[in-house]
Design brief:
By secondary structure, the chain is α/β, with parallel strands linked by helices. Helix content is 49%, strand content 11%. The strands form three sheets. It has a five-stranded parallel β-sheet, with helices on both faces. It is globular, with a radius of gyration of 23 Å. It starts with 5 loop residues before the first helix and ends with a helix. It binds D-mannonic acid. D-mannonic acid binds next to helix 11 and helix 15.
Length: 504
């Protein structure tokens, strides 16, 4: 599969860049858009066109366009950085998707018609959001982009929200842009678009709906009522392991396709998108493009977040303490993987209740995806934003298990490993990538290795742990015990200890 560019590359000092003009010269083994891009028009505005969006939702839209539904092309909007727009400008927004798995495949995606940077082009973004032709707004803005408090309310103290409340016509936050777009549509008598969240948060659509409602109520209660009756916020579950673009990818893509790409993306072959079928203004025929349309996303979302993402975060924090760098490193360690399997089967799976699919089969498929040797998924990437991720990936499971009298010992090891991870970062003066980096660094800084007092330092993270959870005696005891075991035996010794004794 991976051949084609060799002759082209040898002849040229400066390689030809992928674009509308050059695409005809691409290696025959690379799949290209099988539709007329010029004939496509924008139907979706996407906020957050990072690597995950480009490797996932944009590919489904590419399928939709190839089915002849040409009015659903994408306008991608980065809220802050102009990097994606600037990198893909010379490429007419074409880019290469490398599917790295048992079979390696390269595919050029043509679904993005336009890329904008909101911090520089806010009026154009608002114009796109208020255009009658825009019928869906999709989001990958990460957990922190929702600007929510731990209780799930809009964080009105958030600097972006404060700024938007003061100047709603020139927003900076996703919530601010959505509401300004909807305000203009209402004013112009245009039907509301639907807002489709594609982030790893439980109940993602409802959460965004609530944030939008609260924000709009503060500005204009009549607008809030209109949004309440007119706008759909479907939930969705997204899944495909997408390591960040690394230095190895660009030359590999160029070699295989014969064309240079400033920002290709990579992912595994597996891809899943489950969408709640509830739209105010039409939607593409996603059901024919590989998307699962359903009336209830919750079971899919909960199983994926708790099992796949929960295991991922465990591998990231504990694995870093072992000295590992990638998921492959962790997978090669049989003892570590035994711990991950027991965590999934004995503590996460029981929290899930009745599922419309076979959970053991699902766990097996996740484990075999982790073992994909064709991608190098950095633990450091997964470790980002722990304060935003752990509540959905681990803490919700802990809460459910406490209520049901189920085990939490292994789950507590993941949380304790996160504390130790932060402590080590602070100690080694390595930056922490997290919106709460400052508070985390402060907590990590004063740690002494004493479990009770170190755990107490992290309990001050009120936006991560609510007081009720922290003061729960069983949780507190298990967390301190896990912290102490990692402290005294090291991560590997602690896992060995856990494996040597039956779960309580
Ligand atoms: C990962 C996810 O970086 C992370 O936190 O756990 O990006 C994970 O790879 C995806 O959710 C898989 O769909």
């Amino acid at each position: 599969m991976e051949k084609g560019g060799h002759a082209l590359m040898r002849q040229r000092a400066t390689p030809t860049v992928l674009s509308n003009r050059s695409i005809g010269k691409i290696a025959a083994t690379t799949a290209v858009p099988g539709y007329d891009r010029q004939a496509c028009s924008t139907g979706i505005v996407h906020l957050g066109p990072g690597a995950f969006h480009r490797a996932h939702q944009a590919v489904y839209i590419d399928n939709v366009l190839a089915q002849g539904e040409t009015s659903w092309a994408l306008c991608g909007v980065s809220l802050r950085s102009s990097q994606v727009r600037d990198s893909l400008m010379a490429q007419n927004n074409l880019y290469t998707l490398a599917i790295l798995d048992e079979q390696v495949q390269f595919r050029v995606i043509g679904a993005i018609r336009e890329l904008l940077t909101a911090s520089q082009q806010a009026p154009v973004v608002i114009e796109r959001l208020s255009a009658a032709t825009t019928r869906v707004v999709t989001l990958t803005i990460t957990e922190k982009g929702y600007c929510l408090t731990p209780a799930g309310d809009l964080d009105v103290a958030h600097p972006d929200i404060q700024q938007d409340l003061a100047r709603p016509e020139a927003p900076v936050s996703a919530v601010g842009f959505i509401v300004e777009g909807l305000r203009r549509r209402r004013q112009a008598g245009i039907t509301s678009f639907s807002v489709l969240s594609c982030d790893n948060l439980a109940d993602n659509g409802r959460r965004m709906a609530h944030a939008v409602q609260q924000y709009a109520s503060l500005l204009d209660p009549a607008l809030a009522r209109w949004i309440d009756s007119e706008t759909c916020f479907p939930n969705s579950m997204v899944d495909s392991i997408t390591p960040a673009t690394d230095d190895a990818l660009r030359p590999r893509v160029e070699w295989a396709t014969g064309l240079a790409d400033a920002w290709p993306v990579q992912r595994e072959a597996f891809s899943q998108w489950v969408v709640e079928d509830q739209f105010s203004c039409g939607r593409p025929s996603w059901q024919n493009a590989g998307v699962t349309m359903t009336s209830d996303v919750a079971p899919f979302e909960q199983a994926k977040l708790r099992l796949l993402n929960g295991a991922h975060s465990t591998m990231a924090y504990l694995g870093t303490l072992y000295g590992y760098a990638t998921i492959n490193d962790v997978v090669a360690d049989k003892e570590f993987m035994q711990h991950v399997k027991l965590l999934m089967h004995e503590e996460i799976s029981p929290s899930l209740g009745d599922m419309p699919f076979d959970i053991n089969g699902y766990i097996d498929s996740i484990l075999s995806r982790f073992a994909n040797p064709a991608i190098a998924h950095q633990l450091s990437q997964i470790a980002w934003d722990g304060s935003q991720k752990l509540p959905f990936r681990i803490l919700d499971t802990v809460r459910d298990n406490l209520l049901a009298g189920q085990g939490i010992e292994r789950l507590c090891f993941t949380i304790a490993a996160w504390f130790h991870f932060i402590r080590h970062r602070v100690h080694n003066e390595v930056g922490i990538v997290d919106p709460l980096a400052g508070v985390l660094a402060e907590a990590g800084h004063g740690c002494t290795g004493n479990a009770a007092s170190d755990v107490a330092r992290f309990s001050l993270l009120e936006t991560v742990f609510d007081a009720a959870l922290y003061s729960e005696p069983r949780f507190h005891r298990s967390l301190c015990a896990a912290y102490e075991k990692i402290e005294t035996r090291g991560a590997a010794g602690a896992v060995k200890y856990l494996l040597s004794r039956p779960q309580k």
